[in-house]
């Protein structure tokens, strides 16, 4: 592929991947608005984010495998069609049930990212691959911020409505669909095999039963029968999944690949970084909107101001850091860049924990963490690409995406729990110290990323796909 065509392909896939996190975060600032407009409770409206999460957990690994087997371009186009339909259904919804259907369809879009990385690996020459992967990966952090900012802009005014927020992603999905149909080559490799439906059902059941109590635990109660029952059932499904994958001839996930040291610790890092990203966005957004005249801290920002003034710089930092991450991965390797990302993220969260009483300090702390998240996103695909052969790249990146989804869910649940654990006397507002604790928890997640990179990944775990293919680190399951 020529450099010009490669740049076009990278740009189109980056745009498509950006939609993933736009859809994940766009509903967060307007949950209260949706509850008011649809006359539902806070508990009920939380399913607007949970539905997307559960759908992503079930569909992402399955669609990654389908892309490996039947072609990544047709799979990508089908996913974009479903994403556009989901956004349209959400935009037209006037009841919670219909909105949840639309949001579940939007969750399918999470598969775009692993499919995009797998296509880059097949089409882009190795000399330019790290930078291309970094650019596509960097759009995740940018998209998360863009989703919040766009929602703030679209719902400003005295009579906001949530419908226009979902029309925004419907338009993005259609544009990405057209661009992908034109610019993405249909020459990608297909590999023999079949879809492991029993494995998909078992894995999907495990992830749903794991993520459901994580996302709803603050409403149900962390020690309630529903929460503990779901966690227990998730363990049963996990055991069933392992048994199925060991027995079938063509497993959905090759367990040798899953347990392979570079893959395992890269996925752990993905969980830590996903946790840090959501905790950052939600922490800064909530802090900015705290009414200082009542709580004694905060910046009394509207949703719009919180999005544009406090979160947009973080999103832009993520976008700028992405190509830098690609260059660093090419020079230093994914392991050291991942460790560097953890170090920078730890410093940024420590900054926020120690100094969040001024706007400039909060904004710059967010910028530092945003850049760190983008560096980590640049490193992880390179580590995955260096550890698995071509025919498993779709499912491998799909599992890495799910690890970040699990982390994001934990981040959302933890900060919600922290901010409701200690309230100001006679007020439904958190004590300022709870934000300090939350930011220190974020620092801990980034510090764990350093440990995963330096202790879990070995220096010889270099991100060279040629080495992975020639050494056949992961035997093919066909």
From TrEMBL:
The keyword Transmembrane applies. PROSITE patterns: MFS (PS50850). It is found in: Cell membrane. Coiled coil: none annotated. GO terms for cellular component: plasma membrane. Residues 9-461 form the Major facilitator superfamily (MFS) profile domain. The keyword Transmembrane helix applies. It holds the Pfam family MFS_1. This is MFS transporter. It comes from Nocardia pulmonis.
């Amino acid at each position: 592929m020529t450099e010009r065509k490669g740049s076009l392909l990278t740009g189109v896939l980056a745009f498509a991947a950006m939609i993933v996190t736009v859809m994940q975060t766009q509903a967060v600032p307007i949950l209260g608005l949706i509850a008011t407009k649809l006359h539902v409770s806070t508990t009920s409206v939380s399913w607007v984010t949970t539905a997307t999460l559960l759908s992503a957990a079930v569909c992402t690994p399955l669609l990654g495998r389908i892309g490996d087997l039947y072609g990544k371009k047709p799979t990508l186009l089908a996913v974009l069609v479903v994403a556009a339909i989901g956004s349209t259904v959400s935009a037209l919804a006037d009841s919670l049930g219909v909105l949840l259907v639309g949001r579940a369809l939007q969750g399918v879009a999470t598969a775009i990212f692993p499919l995009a990385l797998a296509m880059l690996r097949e089409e882009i020459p190795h000399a330019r691959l790290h930078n291309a992967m970094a650019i596509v990966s960097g759009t995740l952090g940018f998209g998360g911020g863009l989703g919040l900012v766009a929602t703030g802009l679209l719902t400003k005014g005295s009579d906001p409505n949530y419908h226009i927020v979902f029309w925004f992603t419907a338009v993005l999905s259609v544009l990405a669909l057209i661009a992908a149909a034109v610019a993405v080559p249909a020459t990608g490799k297909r590999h023999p095999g079949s879809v492991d439906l029993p494995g998909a059902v078992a894995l999907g059941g495990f992830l749903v039963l794991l993520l459901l109590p994580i996302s709803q635990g603050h409403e149900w109660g962390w020690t309630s029968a529903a929460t503990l029952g779901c966690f227990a059932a998730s363990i049963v499904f996990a055991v069933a999944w392992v048994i199925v994958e060991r027995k079938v001839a063509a497993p959905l996930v090759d367990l040798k690949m899953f347990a392979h040291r570079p893959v395992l610790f890269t996925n752990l890092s993905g969980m830590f970084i996903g946790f840090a990203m959501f905790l950052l966005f939600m922490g800064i957004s909530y802090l900015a909107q705290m009414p200082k005249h009542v709580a004694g801290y905060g910046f009394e920002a509207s949703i719009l101001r919180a999005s544009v003034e406090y979160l947009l710089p973080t999103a832009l930092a993520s976008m700028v850091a992405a190509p830098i991450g690609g260059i660093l991965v090419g020079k230093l390797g994914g392991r050291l860049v991942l460790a560097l990302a953890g170090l920078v993220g730890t410093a940024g969260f420590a900054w926020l924990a120690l100094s969040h009483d001024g706007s400039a300090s909060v904004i710059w702390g967010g910028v530092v963490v945003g850049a760190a998240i983008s560096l980590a996103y640049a490193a992880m695909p390179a580590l995955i690409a260096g550890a698995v052969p071509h025919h498993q790249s779709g499912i491998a990146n799909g599992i890495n995406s799910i690890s970040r989804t699990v982390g994001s869910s934990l981040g959302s649940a933890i900060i919600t729990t922290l901010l409701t654990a200690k309230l100001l006397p006679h007020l439904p507002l958190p004590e300022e110290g709870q934000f300090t604790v939350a930011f220190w928890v974020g620092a801990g997640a980034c510090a764990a990323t350093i440990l995963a990179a330096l202790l879990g990944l070995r220096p010889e775990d270099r991100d060279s796909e040629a080495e992975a293919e020639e050494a056949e680190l992961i035997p093919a399951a066909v």
